[in-house]
UniProtKB/TrEMBL annotation:
Its EC number is 3.1.5.-. This is SAMHD1. One of its GO terms (biological process) is dGTP catabolic process. GO terms for cellular component: nucleus. Residues 305-314 have a biased composition (Polar residues). Residues 1-23, 305-337 are annotated as: Disordered. It is an enzyme of class 3 (hydrolase). SUPFAM superfamilies: HD-domain/PDEase-like. Residues 12-21 have a biased composition (Basic residues). GO terms for molecular function: dGTPase activity. The lineage of its organism: Eukaryota, Metazoa, Spiralia, Lophotrochozoa, Mollusca. It comes from the Eukaryota. Gene3D superfamilies: 3.30.70.2760, Hypothetical protein af1432.
Length: 337
């Protein structure tokens, strides 16, 4: 019995040691299962069901139709070994599927998360509290450290803020902001710019310059930098997509034989926008924004200087015509005929 007990205890000890070793080591991913990591969060080319899901969701919420048919795309997908790395698998798609539509939808955002919702969460952060597994109180800004709390932060948070009975000024501001969003009383776009070069410190500089005006405060405006891309920065995702043909459905290749000429040359764009929170000071904000954009070296899309320059060129042309130095062809008078 003792020898049996020793063997059984020894066996359990070795088994526990093996389990600890497996848990401590990073699990090795088999290359023939690489395709599984391209379904939900595709790091190879950023084309995955997660993005297809929120494209369809946002289009439905905005009452518009997406040009990209994700169901057709999924039906044309196959799990195949790649031609350049034969021991790895990937999700390949038929070459006739128009991936460019997916890229187009990705670049041109079909909707945006209102900036006012961000302000709601900031104002209500100290008042909407949750408890983690240890029983400690956690704020929304700290929820990312506690998965059991983070999973509770759904769209229902805004309803909880509205139903919360508290007379605190911050919470009242949060409730007012939510109601304004539901009533479509959004922040007014004052001006924006999309420079060719990358936006670096211009956002912070704009905020500082606008606050130097004594009539403006942080409650009057917000400066937002928005980045549009296909998920891979300046890179073209299509160069990382594998395709197969009707004639050869056992092999896939990383490039389409006939790439579309409608593809953009740039796959990432940054836009700097200035929004007005207070319509009472919007005229002052417009004037100051135009001045500040010139100071930081950015050109406004509503630049009145460009219009005046064009008007000046037109006036000079009319003056030349009056002096007789240059005259356009006279129109034919039908009555004289």
């Amino acid at each position: 019995m003792k020898s049996v007990g020793k063997r059984s205890c020894g066996g359990r000890g070795k088994r526990k040691k093996r389990i600890r070793g497996v848990r401590g080591e990073k699990p090795e991913i088999k290359k023939e299962r690489y395709y599984m990591y391209e379904i939900v969060a595709n790091k190879r080319n950023e084309i995955d069901v997660d993005k297809m899901d929120y494209f369809a969701r946002d289009c439905h919420g905005l009452g518009m139709k997406s040009n990209f048919d994700h169901l057709r795309y999924i039906k044309q997908c196959r799990v195949m070994f790649t031609s350049d790395k034969p021991d790895e698998t990937t999700i390949a798609v038929r070459d006739k599927v128009n991936i460019q539509l997916f890229i187009h939808v990705h670049i041109h955002d079909i909707g945006y998360y209102p900036k006012r919702f961000t302000d709601v969460l900031v104002e209500a952060n100290d008042h909407l509290l949750f408890k983690n597994n240890s029983g400690h109180t956690v704020k929304m800004s700290e929820a990312w450290q506690h998965p059991e709390v983070y999973e509770k932060l759904t769209d229902s948070v805004f309803d909880e803020i509205l139903m919360k009975e508290d007379s605190d000024k911050q919470l009242e501001i949060a409730k007012e902001l939510i109601n304004n969003v539901y009533k479509r009383k959004l922040y007014s776009l004052v001006d924006e710019t999309s420079p060719v070069t990358k936006i670096e410190k211009q956002k912070e500089t704009m905020e500082t310059l606008l606050l130097e005006n004594t009539t403006l405060s942080e409650d009057d405006f917000t400066v937002q930098k928005v980045t549009y891309s296909c998920g891979m920065g300046p890179r073209n995702p299509i160069t990382s997509v594998y395709f197969y043909t009707k004639d050869n459905d056992t092999d896939c290749f990383p490039k389409q034989k006939k790439p579309s000429l409608f593809l953009p040359q740039i796959f990432e764009e940054e836009t700097l926008r200035v929004y007005s929170k207070n319509d009472a000071n919007i005229n002052v904000l417009k004037k100051e924004t135009a001045k500040c954009l010139i100071k930081v070296g950015l050109e406004s899309v509503k630049n009145s200087a460009i219009d005046s320059k064009h008007q000046g060129n037109a006036a000079s042309k009319r003056k030349l015509n009056a002096d007789g130095k240059s005259s356009p062809s006279k129109p034919i008078n039908k009555k004289s005929r």
